[in-house]
Every structure is written in C-alpha cells, then in structure tokens.
From TrEMBL:
This is Paraquat-inducible membrane protein A. InterPro entries: PqiA-like, PqiA-PqiB_transport. It comes from the Bacteria. It is found in: Cell inner membrane. The keyword Cell membrane applies. GO terms for cellular component: plasma membrane.
Amino acid sequence: MTTPPVASELGLCLCHSCGLACDMTNEPHECERCGAPLHRRKTNALARTWAYMFTALAFYVPANLLPVMNTKMVGNGADSTIMSGVLEFWEAGAWDIALIIFIASIAVPGIKFVALTLLLVTVHRDSLWARKERSKLYRFVEVIGYWSMLDVIVVALVASLVKFQALADIEPRAGILFFGLVVVFTMLAAMSFDPRMIWDKEPDPSQNEEDMDEVASH
C-alpha cells in the first residue's frame, strides 16, 4: 500500500500563525501572507514540553493545598481549598457547580499530565505503538485545554453572587494564582509538543516481513 507524500517531500511548510501552506523551495524565513517566522518543526519541542509540564506539576501541588478563596459570613471568615470548596458545594446541594469545579480543577489537569507524559515517553523511545491513537490523544489534550479556566470563572461568579449579600464578603487567596499558573503552563506544554514526532520513526520492513511469516506459519 502506497502512502501519500508528506509536506517536507512536497517542499511545503505550514505557517503556525495563519495556517498557510508555504512553498519552501527558496527557503523563505517568513510567511508570505502574515509575515510570521516559518519553522519546519517546533524548535526544541521535547525539552520545552518537559520543562513546561514539570513547571505546571510543581504549581499543581500548592494550587490544591493552598486556599483559593476566603468567605466571610456575618464577620466569620473561612478559607477554602479547591477540594473543600467542591465538598461544600456538594453538601449545599449545588452538585452541578461542585462537579464543574472538580472536573476542571482536578480531573482535567490530571488527565493532561498523564496524556502528555505518555506522549513524551513514547516519542523518546521511538515507539511505534498505537501511533494513530496517540495522535488522537494529543488532539483531545488540545480540546480540553480550552476549558481549563472554567473553574476560575465559576469562582469569579460565586464571588460576584456573594458580594450581592450585605453581610457577606469573599476574597481570593494564593491558591487561585497557582491554579492559574497550572493552566497556563499545561497549555504551553501542549502547544510546544510536536505531534509529527509520533510519526518520525518508520517501521522496519524486515520486522514486518518476519511478523507476516509468523502469522502465515500459524
């Protein structure tokens, strides 16, 4: 089965800014449409992705341990972490808000850490395992990244609702800053990863022939 040619074989390069397929015959340094710098590959993709992901992981710990807001009701104040806020909303009957905060604050970052680690490790090992599925996994990481700030928005909405009450007040705490940094660095990690690295390693034809002979013998 013949495979279609790749962009490098056709002398094309996709602009990362406007998406134009640029002709690289004369090795232009800028996109002819938007003027953005052209790169055949994302520079230092593996190192940058690892660095951004470890930075996000370092911020993920204080983001979950430190309080994200302080709520004062009739003079009595109490700090709330992300998890304690989820439990408070759940016990108060606001299970939908609790579910949104849990998914956006705890589940989504955890999924992104696991998915990016899997992608990075398999690329480092030149693995041929499930390359199509790993490409889909990367696109999934990109999609869920757009919803990473959802719980920050929920906290802002809760704060605005509390402010309407005359005897109540709410203030942000350091945890919300660390969580914002987690969101930023996980998005940078996903943007730095080059999914074309998944397809760089070509299968060994001799190995494929051995596998086919083994199947035929059975």
